[in-house]
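Hey L., structure's done. Input below.
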Amino acid sequence: MAPRPFLSLVVPVRNEEEVLDAFFAALAPVAEQVAATAGPVEFIFIDDGSTDRTAALLRARAETDPRVRLVSFSRNFGKEAGLTAGLHFARGDVAVPIDVDLQDPPELIPAMIAKWRDGFDVVYGERVSRPTDTWLKRLSAERFYRLFNRISDVPIPFNAGDFRLMDRAVVEALCALPERTRFMKGLFAAMGYRQAALPYVRPERAAGTTKFRFLRLWAFALDGITSFSSIPLRVWSYVGGAIALLGLLYGGFIGLRTLVFGRDVPGFATLAVMTSVIGGLQLLSIGVLGEYVARLFVEAKQRPIFIVRELAGFDDEEAAEQARKLAGKAVIARHRPRPAPQALEP
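Output:
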């Protein structure tokens, strides 16, 4: 087994062949600096079902660079599963999840290590400026952070992504969590420990395009809220109580008016509007309940968080150790080369 590294860089990738060379070029001087001052570095790439040459390029680099390790999924499981896998495979004293598009500047890693040496267990990058994002993305992100922190018992830092340095103890605590629906920003915050922010200006993407779309971000936000807050469920108790009280008051008003004036109150329009409003609220509340039930359904099935199709850069002993660690959470079913077809005898 290879000697244990000091730093593990966890890099989820999907269809990123355009930016890999630029990423390695930017990472090389930082890795050399860390290796010279702290200890060895390993690069753990999680290929999340790429359909381009990303996996092939990383596989070829792993054959020539012993620091590079590739974990290829059998399909696209999502970035949260990729981060989970990378942290499970990380062996370093500290681990740093980082995006391959260079919007997480690698040159900040030595400063993170310095803060770690000062006694902090987690050092997260704080985006003090996001000039490359659209105003809509900045606004929606701000609103989400504010809403999440209002309704969750575990607040997450504003403008903090996955880019952070974590001590080995934090990584092991994260890997011990059994849940299948994983909102990593919330899980990072839920770990506690001593945390510090490292401000930076987020640069432009080096190449390629983002793989996140609006619907995926919306689903991501729902996962975060339903994973860390029960208030969306509780609020419907108050809504139901308020509607019941209004109904009683309105019923009393109708009865009193009928007794005083001795005539019924025409109310077809009122009944139609109230029926529509109450029916809509009931469907909305059932939808909120369904979001939580769906996540219970996922957890109850206990399916693996991810399935590994191929490992590159690992020796057999390391692969066996990882398989033991991931028992019950994931599957390592490595692809083996198929034998060449034999010629038929005439």
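The chain has a mean pLDDT of 76. The CA atoms of residues 244 and 250 lie 10 Å apart.

-- N.
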